[in-house]
Amino acid sequence: MDLGKNTQQELEEKFEELFDRLFRHLHLRIPSSEDAEDIAAEIFTKAWKRAYSYDSQQGTVLMWLFGIARHEVATYWKTHSIKQVDYDTVESMLQDEGRSTLRQNVELDLDRVLQSLTEEQRALVIRHHLDGIPHAEIARSVGRTESGVRKIISRAVRTLKSSVISK
Q: Residue 124's Cα: distance from chain center in Å?
């Protein structure tokens, strides 16, 4: 069995877990849950077709999928830049069942609070606490020790707590 077949088999076996994590990752970056779901499906299609290009020395399958996702999110925002306001689109976005006002406020607060962190801290906190990636996996992907990643995340969480308490 070649490397591509192994990757395709892993995608099949872990589809639900990988899809859920990828969808959460995308939904934090894309306002429409339907678009995030479509993009997640597109990423799996691309990964399936390009399974031969996966290199386990570069990281896990999930990290590989997040790399594809980074490009897909950039493409999404390039094609969805607002040139003219479409009131029907705005109204449907406001009525999107998964985006209540409370959730939007929490997300805005989270974005504001995360800005108090360095870029590295923010990236590691998001990957661990929001995307659910284990410390060891993050450490491998960023070229740090697991204990180093734990310390950075721990300090970042303390900064976040003090930022929230002081507001």
A: 11
Question: What is the sign, positive or negative, of the torsion defined by CA atoms of 113, 143, 76, 97?
Answer: negative
- Say how far apart CA 54 and CA 71 lie, in whole Å: 16
Structure tokens belonging to residue 76: 């999404």
**What is the phi/psi pair of residue 29, to 5°?**
-110, -15
DSSP state of 31: S
Lookup: tokens for 99: 């985006």
Q: Is the pTM of this model over 0.70?
A: no
Per-residue model confidence (pLDDT) at position 38? 92
Tell me which residues of the chain have a pLDDT lower than 70.
Answer: 1-5, 7, 81-111, 164-167
- Say yes or no: do domains 1-93 and 100-167 share a fold: no
Options 3.30.530, 3.90.1200, 3.40.50, 1.10.1740; which CATH number does 1-93 get?
1.10.1740
Domain coordinates in residue numbering, the chain: 1-93, 100-167
C-beta of residue 99 within 8 angstroms of C-beta of residue 31: yes
pLDDT at position 88 is 57
Domain spanning 100-167, CATH class: mainly alpha
Strand, coil or helix: 99: coil
